[in-house]
Design a protein that fits this description.
By secondary structure, the chain is mainly alpha-helical. It is 46% helix and 9% strand.
Length: 129
C-alpha cells in the first residue's frame, strides 16, 4: 500500500455527536487530523431538526432501507429519545468553529428542508462549485 495514491475525490460521512462528551470531540479531532495533515480540507455540517421531525424521519421507508439499525422501530425510537435526553446533540452558536479552527463549519436546521435543498445550501456556503 505504501506509495499508492488515493483516487477518491471526497469522503462524506455522518456521525452523531454528543457535544458534552469529551470522547466524541476527541474522535472528531482525530478524524480531522488525518485529512488536515494530508493537506486536505475538512468541512463540518451540523444538521439539526426538531425532535418530532427526527422521529418521523426515523420511520421513513428510504431510511429503513439504508440503515439496518433503524429497522427495529421500537428500539430505534427509544434510542432516539434516550440520546436526545442524555446528550447535548446540538452545538452552541460558535462552538464548532472554536473547537475546530482549521475546519470550515456550518449549521443547518433542516426540519423543513429537503435533502436537495440542504445540499444546495452546503455547496453555496462553502463555494464548492
Amino acid at each position: 500500500m505504501a506509495g499508492e495514491q488515493n483516487t477518491v475525490k471526497t469522503i462524506i460521512f455522518t456521525v452523531l455527536v454528543g457535544f458534552d462528551q469529551k470522547e466524541d470531540i476527541a474522535f472528531l479531532h482525530k478524524i480531522c487530523e488525518i485529512f488536515l495533515s494530508a493537506g486536505q480540507p475538512v468541512y463540518f455540517v451540523e444538521l439539526v431538526a426538531q425532535l418530532e421531525e427526527r422521529i418521523a424521519r426515523n420511520r421513513q421507508e428510504a431510511r429503513l432501507k439504508a440503515k439496518l439499525s433503524k429497522r427495529d422501530l421500537a428500539f430505534s425510537h427509544q434510542e432516539l429519545l434516550t440520546f436526545n435526553e442524555k446528550y447535548r446533540l446540538e452545538s452552541h452558536s460558535t462552538e464548532l468553529a472554536s473547537l475546530f479552527p482549521k475546519v470550515k463549519t456550518m449549521k443547518i436546521d433542516n426540519t423543513e428542508l429537503s435533502p436537495e435543498m440542504v445540499s444546495q445550501k452546503i455547496i453555496a456556503n462553502f463555494q464548492l462549485e
